[in-house]
Amino acid sequence: xxxxxxxxxxxxxxxxxxxxxxxxxxxxxxxxxxxxxxxxxxxxxxxxxxxxxxxxxxxxxxxxxxxxxxxxxxxxxxxxxxxxxxxxxxxxxxxxxxxxxxxxxxxxxxxxxxxxxxxxxxxxxxxxxxxxxxxxxxxxxxxxxxxxxxxxxxxxxxxxxxxxxxxxxxxxxxxxxxxxxxxxxxxxxxxxxxxxxxxxxxxxxxxxxxxxxxxxxxxxxxxxxxxxxxxxxxxxxxxxxxxxxxxxxxxxxxxxxxxxxxxxxxxxxxxxxxxxxxx
Length: 279
Prior knowledge:
Mean pLDDT: 95
Low-confidence stretches: none
Shape: globular
Radius of gyration: 17 Å
Number of helices: 10
Helix content: 25-40%
Strand content: 15-25%
Distance between the termini: 34 Å
């Protein structure tokens, strides 16, 4: 929530890369104020995009053009995480609070029903919301979801620890390069990643895996799209577990994608899969 001048400037620079007209709204709730970026035709099917932790809503810069062709896209900054949402209200104690926050957001945006897509931590929030409020979700897309079907890699958590405890631009960039195997091609996104070291978050909720019985009874049409090269977990082990726990879901792997690069480095392939599923 908030951050230094360099972070906010880098955030705005990435947001300026969003094509078309983008409206910005601040939605009040018991937890604080949520910043939401809205684009796409007003009569388009609503699509809510939840980013991964530390990525903010601007992460969708490479995908939003294609997705907004047929959808009214709503991209919030997560409550409690970095970005322009302000967590100055009720505490976030667990998944129930995040579900209540998202429910309030749906109410304020007048979304009786919408497609919901989340990446990483955002996918975990999206799944929990779909399990508790299935009547509000028409389709659910989970992009390399963490702690939904299996735990995260100990090696990944060990690498992430210094970034979480004492972040610096160098540590953030090195962690991203280790996980993706490359330096981001987009200069604005590269600058944004470095700037997140000075951004402030109030509370990223500890992720607890949903119960197997909850997953098996989920009736929302679901896509689980895993990054084949993800270091957050072993995607080839997560895939069969996801198929077993959610037998009605479509489970697929995106070749050559890593966990952190999934939304930004292969936009054409990701857009193709998402648009086919959401159509």
